[in-house]
Specification:
There is one protein chain. Helices cover about 0% and strands about 45% of the residues. It is built from two helices and 33 strands. The chain has helices at about 140-145, 420-425, and strands at about 15-20, 20-25, 40-50, 55-60, 70-75, 80-85, 95, 120-125, 130-135, 150-155, 170-175, 180-185, 190, 200-205, 210-215, 220-225, 230, 240-245, 250-255, 260-265, 270-275, 310-325, 325-335, 345, 350-360, 365-370, 375-380, 380-385, 390, 395, 400-405, 415-420, 430-435. The longest helix is centred in the last third of the chain and has 5 residues, at about 420-425. The protein starts with 14 loop residues before the first strand and ends with a strand. The structure holds CU-O-CU linkage and copper (II) ion.
């Protein structure tokens, strides 16, 4: 079975080997006695959804809409979501993409829980320890359920002021429905009101299966990647920012002093910041130069050393033409193996782990590690020279080799897979497992 990605739910949540005995991952939870600060119910339905332009497509909704409601909490809050599956026939789960939740709350069907059947419910509890921009989505038959809209935005508001203060903020959740680009579920450009001279933080979330580009004719700053603040971000001009599938970029846009509007291109639609209603600057051509986040912002010491890691792993991605389950096609391997025939990366709690990720496959893969955030150390032998670039979703292009590091500080079994979710179904899923 393809855990969380395949056609049907695998049965039985897994166990983690834990010293002499074994620990059921379902024991890895947030403090069960702590009352929730934020408590919501999310009801998933399978239904036809309206696509802008007067068509309907097969899709999924959360509380009646796609994207579902934005989940908002303050840093430190205990969040409790009761997930109800009203009519998703394949079963469904919720995964909190980018949030380092306890393993039992990770929402991966076949690994940390069974898919919730029609008529069933599941309670997720986690502490929102890190501020930032995240999203939730189903992790059951995810290449279908995510593409068809079983998802929504998450914003964790910071307990302390962020490095770049903003006067206002807005969410721009990007998703393609039935071939139509949308922002926050609408096919029109989004508008954010802003007084002249003020700064707006736009939280751009790429929920699609490929890379999204963000650019503007006006300078702007990238103030966070995947929920983590960039240290001393400088204005960028004439470059685009690329957001991997699953990734987020928070950008700070300044409304011009003369009262005019700024157009921020985000994938297929724009976010118009400031200016009089109904006026918008004309579209600008997409720059061909791409901001290199490896050298953006200024350095800051990491909380852990990476010169002498406790574990080092190779994660080599390749392509294999073949026939699997009678289906000929193009499959993806990690270190020569395809999921589920794939050894796990074993770690111990407290380990500093360095992964050498290399892409020999000829196609781009947005790699996503659950439950941890990862710092990018180098690309093709060139060391990071900017702000610590912290990600949970990283585009690895053909021929590229990245060294990334993380601290094993969250026991459990964690997926480390491609977020072009069709690639995950076709083999590109590994797991990090705590001993
Ligand atoms: Cu956003 Cu395992 O996925
Ligand atoms: Cu891929």
């Amino acid at each position: 079975e393809q855990a969380g990605h395949g056609a049907h739910a695998a049965g039985g949540a897994a166990s983690v080997a834990g010293g002499p005995g074994t620990t059921d991952v379902t024991a890895l939870t947030a403090d069960p006695d702590r009352p929730a600060d934020v408590r919501v119910e999310f009801v998933a339905r399978q239904e036809r959804i309206d696509v802008p332009g007067g068509r309907t497509v097969d899709g999924y909704t959360v509380n009646g809409t796609s994207p579902g409601p934005e989940l908002r909490a303050r840093q430190g809050d205990l969040v409790e979501v009761t997930f109800v599956n009203e009519s998703v026939v394949d079963g469904a789960t919720l995964h909190w993409h980018g949030i380092d939740v306890p393993n039992a709350a990770d929402g991966v069907a076949g690994i940390t829980q069974d898919a919730v059947p029609v008529g069933g419910r599941h309670v997720y509890r986690f502490e929102a320890t890190d501020a930032g921009t995240y999203w939730y989505h189903s992790h059951q038959v995810s290449h279908v359920q995510v593409e068809r809209g079983l998802l929504g935005a998450i914003v964790i508001e910071p307990a302390d002021p962020p490095e770049v203060a903003a006067d206002a903020e807005a969410t721009a959740l990007l998703h393609v429905y039935g071939g139509r680009h949308t922002v926050n579920g609408r096919a029109e450009d989004a508008r954010v009101a802003a007084e002249p001279g003020t700064t707006v933080r736009v939280r751009v979330i790429n929920t699609d299966q490929g890379t999204a580009a963000v650019w503007s004719a006006m300078p702007f700053r990238v103030v966070a990647t995947d929920g983590h603040d960039v240290h001393e971000p400088t204005p960028i001009d004439g470059e685009r920012v690329l957001i991997p599938a699953g990734g987020r970029a928070d950008v700070a846009v300044r409304a011009p002093d003369d009262g005019s509007a700024v157009r921020l291109h985000t994938g297929g639609r724009s976010v118009i910041v400031g200016g009089p209603a109904a006026s918008a600057p004309p579209p600008a051509a997409q720059p061909s130069r791409t901001l290199d986040l490896l050298a953006y912002g200024s350095p800051e010491p990491l909380a852990f050393g990476t010169d002498d890691p406790d574990r080092e792993f190779d994660y080599v991605i390749a392509r294999r033409f073949g026939i699997v389950d009678g289906r000929p096609g193009n499959f993806w391997t990690v270190n020569g193996r395809m999921f589920p025939d794939m050894p796990m990366f074993h770690v111990r709690e407290g380990d500093v782990v360095v992964m050498h990720v290399r892409n020999d496959s000829g196609d781009v893969h947005p790699m996503h590690l659950h439950g941890h955030h990862v710092v990018v150390l180098s690309r093709d032998g060139i060391a990071a020279s900017g702000s610590p670039w912290i990600v949970d979703s990283l585009d690895v292009h053909p021929g590229e080799a990245y060294d990334v590091a993380f601290v094993a500080d969250n026991p459990g079994i964690w997926s480390d897979h491609c977020h072009t979710l069709r690639h995950a179904v076709d083999g590109l899923v590994a797991h990090v497992m705590y001993e």
